[in-house]
Write a structure and sequence with these properties.
alpha/beta; globular; binds nicotinamide-adenine-dinucleotide; single chain; 11 helices; 342 residues; Rossmann fold
Length: 342
């Protein structure tokens, strides 16, 4: 007997991993996706891993009537909200589309949640919401209490605005919100059946590097080298997607175990605490896969911050989980996967 019923936007990269792990942990999931950045194939792979197909509806979050039919059909306990347009460069070209898709239509979803008394939500936010400040990796980290604003591109702004909306809903409509801020998830499901498979040229670094390594793309574009970092390329934190999803389950169980029935808005930074520059990740990949990866320095993008360091103490202490998979292991597994499957 499954414990909870969740509605999610889950055929994308992180979502398809989440659906498998939540189902394995005895939660029933209902998947809704418009397939704008995912493929129905993911459902076939999910079925292969689980031995059955979770309920799936090809519906756009913008279609409130169809969404309402789904709310009427199931007695949902939770929403896990992954549906998002997420290409930073595209958000600069089409800011209105991003605000429309990511904010306006999330509000339609929250209206339905309120109407059908589904007050629990996990939201995939991003550490990019923090207001830029001088950070020193020896002592000066972003904590969950730091200020968030001054976003440098519309994608980040939509995350920032949605966090504010959810905070309001927690206070005034008694929503219980787990707001998870993460940076760069990498690699694929341990079954090797599902992986990050964008419909277009990848926006994220690792699939791009892998596509160059298998000669699907000619070289890696590195967006300039005049940042004040160890080797002048920007620095990020990369979290293995399997660790990331385990953190989602812990976040979920935190509310269940602690029997929290009051409203709340809880924020967690989900980071590995190991930061690397673009050149470092490139060189580490070359070492792990024994192959040279061609790259070119190209134009500087206005929105890239040099480096951001987050403190993850709160997530460690309260959610009782430490990331287990090293960067080298993630890279090695990614390579085995791309080399064998593409
Ligand atoms: N991947 C990352 O690097 C990263 C980092 C930080 C935060 N996040 C957040 O995590 C969440 C999931 O990211 P992902 O990498 O899995 O992205 P993804 O693009 O693979 O998944 C998002 C899914 O939402 C669907 N979608 C978009 N608009 C929709 C609409 N109007 N109606 C129905 N479905 C719609 C897409 O088809 C896609 O399957 C997003 O909110 C993203 O902003 C991702």
């Amino acid at each position: 007997m499954k414990k909870n019923v969740l509605i999610t936007w889950w055929l994308g990269y992180i979502g398809s991993h989440a659906v498998v792990e939540f189902e394995k942990n005895w939660y029933k999931t209902v998947i809704v996706d418009n397939l704008s950045n995912s493929s129905i194939e993911a459902l076939i792979w999910i079925e292969k891993i689980l031995g059955y197909k979770p309920d799936f509806f090809e519906v756009d979050i913008r279609d409130k009537n169809k969404l309402e039919e789904i709310f009427k059909k199931y007695n949902f306990d939770w929403v896990i909200h992954f549906a998002w347009l997420k290409a930073v460069w595209e958000s600069c070209l089409k800011p209105l589309d991003y605000h429309d898709n990511n904010i306006l239509w999330s509000i339609r979803l929250f209206e339905l949640m309120d109407k059908y008394n589904v007050k629990n939500i996990i939201f995939s936010s991003s550490a990019t919401v923090y207001k830029e400040k001088f950070v020193d990796k020896n002592f000066n980290w972003y904590t969950e209490n730091d200020l968030t604003w001054d976003c440098t591109n519309p994608y980040w702004t939509t995350k920032f605005i949605l966090e504010q909306i959810l905070r309001d809903l927690s206070i005034h409509l008694k929503f219980r919100v787990m707001n998870l801020r993460y940076f760069n998830p990498i690699w694929a499901h341990t079954s090797w059946y599902i992986w990050e498979d964008p419909n277009w040229i990848p926006n994220n670094l690792l699939p791009y590097i892998m596509k160059v390594a298998i000669w699907e793309l000619p070289y890696l574009n590195i967006f300039w080298n005049d940042y004040s970092t160890i080797d002048w390329t920007w620095v990020r934190d990369y979290i293995d997607v399997n660790d990331l999803i385990e953190w989602h389950i812990k976040a979920f169980q935190y509310i269940e175990k602690n029997n929290i029935d009051l409203w709340f808005f809880n924020i967690y930074n989900l980071w590995t605490w190991k930061w690397v520059s673009v050149l470092e990740i490139l060189k580490t990949t070359e070492k792990v896969i024994w192959k040279e990866i061609p790259y070119k320095f190209v134009w500087r993008r206005d929105w890239d911050l040099a480096e951001v360091y987050c403190n993850r103490e709160k997530a460690y202490k309260e959610l009782w989980f430490k990331t287990k998979i090293s960067l080298e292991e993630s890279l090695r597994n990614s390579w085995k996967f791309y080399n064998n499957n593409k």
